């Protein structure tokens, strides 16, 4: 009888703790934010039936369906940027092209107009001269950029820095140098507020550039959403090359990094290859967070 009583007491205690956790998160519901990371694949005539012309509507429909608060995209050509910007009218779009001005691929930031206002924003180049447009000094195959914005919640007044980037796909030197540059710049722009960073980093977990992002290294440590989420859904790998890479061979190269004060509740890798028409050669990744 005593054993049964203790067992029931422990169960009741466990349920109480779960309830407290639930209500604590609910109380902070105003600080919840959903972030979408999405390499949409540039316009390329060689993609055949996967060309942007055939999938553009599906891409923006997916963005709407996720109900993301902020979105970071890569490989966005000027024409794609115009189409997506016009189709996602409830979002503000920020960011320059990697060739300067509106030329070349963009890493645009989208954020909900009804929820946030940008207090400051900009684009810098991943090079020794980050403020020089179109600069490329680390041997990267392409010019690379990072776009950022300091956003303020219109209701709560909470601020956070959101940034979006695309590391080079060939130069390991450029990849290694990009991580500390991005972190030092974001630390400068954030002014102590939480940081969320999305991107196609073209590196895998455990690599030097990845570790430079998550370790302090003279700046600040970061967590990675998939690694640290309470709940994970979908596949680990994110690059499927139009479904030609087997599930167990796919690399995870698309990430969402956050500062330690941000809690990752859930991270989803949406398996793009299960759709009748694939959205991109990368799986989109989205995650739910609690800001401090």
Number of domains: 1
Strand order, biggest sheet? Answer: 3-4-2-1-13-12-10
**What is the averaged pLDDT score?**
92
Largest sheet: 7 strands, mixed
Relevant CATH superfamily: Endonuclease/exonuclease/phosphatase
DSSP strand tally: 13
Care to describe what's here?
With 292 residues, this protein is of the alpha+beta class. It has one domain (30-290): Deoxyribonuclease I, Chain A (4-Layer Sandwich). The chain is built from six helices and 13 strands. The strands form two sheets. A seven-stranded mixed sheet has the order 3-4-2-1-13-12-10. Strands 5-6-7-8-11-9 form a six-stranded mixed sheet. Strand 1, helix 2 (52-66) and strand 2 (70-74) form a beta-alpha-beta unit. It is globular and about 45 Å long. The relative contact order is 0.14.
